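Usage

Read records sequentially. Each one opens with the input sequence:
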Amino acid sequence: MKNFDQDRFLRTQSGAVSIADMARPLMRSLLDGGTERIYFMGTGGVQLLTFPAIDLIQRHSTFPVAACYPAQVVVDPPAGLDEKALVIIPSLSGTTREGVELLAFLKARGVKTLSLTGHADTPLARDASHTFTNPADDTTSSESFYLQTLILAMALLAETGALSDYDKIIAELKTLPGLLVAAKEAFDPQAAKLAEAIQHEPWHIFTGAGNAWPEAHYYGMCILEEMQWIRTRPVHGADFFHGTLELVEPGVSVFLFKGEDAARPLGDRVERFVRRYTDKLWVLDTAEVALPGVSPRVRAMISPVLLATMLERMSAHLEVLRDHPLTTRRYYKRVEY
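and closes with the structure output:
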C-alpha cells in the first residue's frame, strides 16, 4: 500500500491496546486515592479523539466526566479542578504549548494528571503525575488515541461497577491491530477512487452521529483543512436539518460517516435526504468492514477507530494526487500567539 509502514502501524496499535494491562490497576489506585471526577483536556484535533471515551462513560455511568479546552482552562478554569480531579492530557508530540502551560497550571492547584503521548522524554511525558507513552506519528496516532482513551474509560467503568466484562472486551481489542491492517488493504482500492473523485473539490460537508461524529469533525478540520488547505463544514448529524441542509445542492460534496452504535439511524436520515439533492455523497460505513471474531458490541464501540484507519488510506492517495504532502503547513509552528 502507498505510504504505509505496516510494521510501524502494528507496533503503535499493539502498544495502544497493551495499556489495558496497566489502566485498570491505575484507575483503582486513583479512585482509592480520592479521584471523584475526570476531565479530558487535549489541544486541537486530539481532543476530538477523546469524545467517544467521554460518551462511553456518560452513557454507562453517572461518574462526572467532562471535556475542556486547555487554553481556556488556564484563563478561566471550571469548578472542581482540585486534588479530587484527574485530568487526562493527550498529546502526540508531548510538547504542545497549550498542554505544557496547562500542566504547570494544574500542578500548582494539586490536580492529578495522566498524559498520553507519542514521545517519551518530553515535558508532558516527564512532568505528569502518570503517563502512558506509545510511540506514534501522524499516520498512526488517531487509532492509538481512540483506543487508549476508550480503554481508560472502560477501566473506570469496570472499577466503579458499571462494566462487568472488561477482560472479554480487551481480549477482542487485542486482535484488532492485525484486523485493521486487513481493513486498510481491503479499503485501499476504494480509497484511491475516492481520492481521485474529490481531489479538485473546493469544499466539503462532513457529518456523522454518535461516535462517528468525532471522526467526521476531526477529518474535516485536522486533515483536509490543516493538512490539505481544503475548506470543510463539519456538522453533527443531529444538527444537519437545522441549517446545513440548506447548503446541499447539485455538485456539493457531502461526506457521511456511519458507525454501528445506537445513533446510526441519524446517519440513515441524512443519507436519505442528501441523495435526493446532490450526486456527490460519499458514505463511509463501518458495517462494511470485515472484523472476524469481533462482537457487535465491540464493533459499535470502535467505529471511530475503523473510520480513522480507512481514511488514512484516502489521505495517502490524496496527498499524492494533489502534490500536497500532509506535512506541509503555512503557519504551523511559525505563528506568534
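Summary fields computed downstream for this record:
- The mean pLDDT is 96.
- The chain has two domains: 6-166, 176-321.
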